[in-house]
Please model this.
Amino acid sequence: MNVPLLPMMVVSGLVVGAAFRGEGAVRVLTREALVEKVSGFWIGQMAGNYLGFPFETVYVDEPIPVIVDRYYTPFDAGTLRLNSKDSRGYVPFLFTEFDGAFSDDDTDIEFVTLHAVERYGLDIDYPQIAEVWKRHINRRIWVANRTARNLMSKGLIPPETGKKANNPNWFQIDPQLVNEIWSAFYPGLPEQAARRAEWGARITSDDWGVHPTVLYGVMFSEAFFETSPETLVRSALKFIPVTSPFHEGVEDVLRWHAEARDDWKATRQKVHAKYFRYVKGDYAAPVSVVSSLVNGLCGVLAVLHGEGDFMRSVGIAVSAGYDCDNQSATVGGLLGVMRGAGVIPRSLTRDCVPEEKPWDKPFNDSYINTSRDELPVHSRISDLVERTVVIAEKAILREGGQKTEVDGKLAYRWPETR
Model:
């Protein structure tokens, strides 16, 4: 049957199309567009991570009074509070030190996962990922990740390392910020992305602690085609159990956003009032500045109130506070996929080296690994992108896709799975 195509969207001059949902629906993506969007995934996460770094866990009871739109240091922060006694407060100077991007847990565990999937394939199992973690992930990890890693050393294998009975940090934000890469492996394949996002989340987490990871996993996968923030959120919410406090929270954020679209601070105030110390009936959720519940909801409010604009979305994610470098990394990666790497302001990726000439490529096309053992110290970001695209191609073909051409360009065509 002939299936009418959705209106085409143009990403850096590359045509991308998706079919209307229904019997026989298909999705089509050029390889160049896939590269552009996966570039947005990696570079957007890095930019968001570094933008939020100076404010990580500093603002809790109230948001930052401005929408953060540049890299702050203690020298120009004015009345803003930020991390000034460690490296988190000096991001531009770290760029100069490393002459490029540098590893942090928002990207470096995905860096490990990339290597692991290249070795074991998309069907990597829990014993295999445990061995990978024990070899490569030994330091600069915290909270649920740290606990899960300690349990691996005691002989436990995921998902036992994430279960409530074993991991008291089962509800923290950790899995959200380390599993987005599964959606880059499964672009436009939300069911598969959701399944593997939950699989990855259960390495460290349990119960509703895995739900934000699944939500963002679906959003990232769908963002290869969908550009409406609200549509992304609503589509992903279908994958979350209605009994989950996170489901309830996302529904609230959708409603609060509709009531005051121009006032993200009002939405943030309501999120803090209800979900920082969430109580319903006899149940009281654990309280933490790095809880997946309140942080995950702040990411959703940033996506909605950001209205598809990269800088506004990521800026709100930072300004919402809590463990904001993680939220801004997630939102940055999501907007990078949705809009392509070309929308990320060069002020965040090239013109950000103090007293140095701007880089020719985002983050000098360099990712410096300072934290993951027995893996390369230096990688080209473009190589990370290409390696991710190679795995995504394998996933598309395995899920019934095929190679084709669009205007003489290599493209992929595959059946829509929802």
In short: Confidence is low (pLDDT under 50) at residues 1-23.
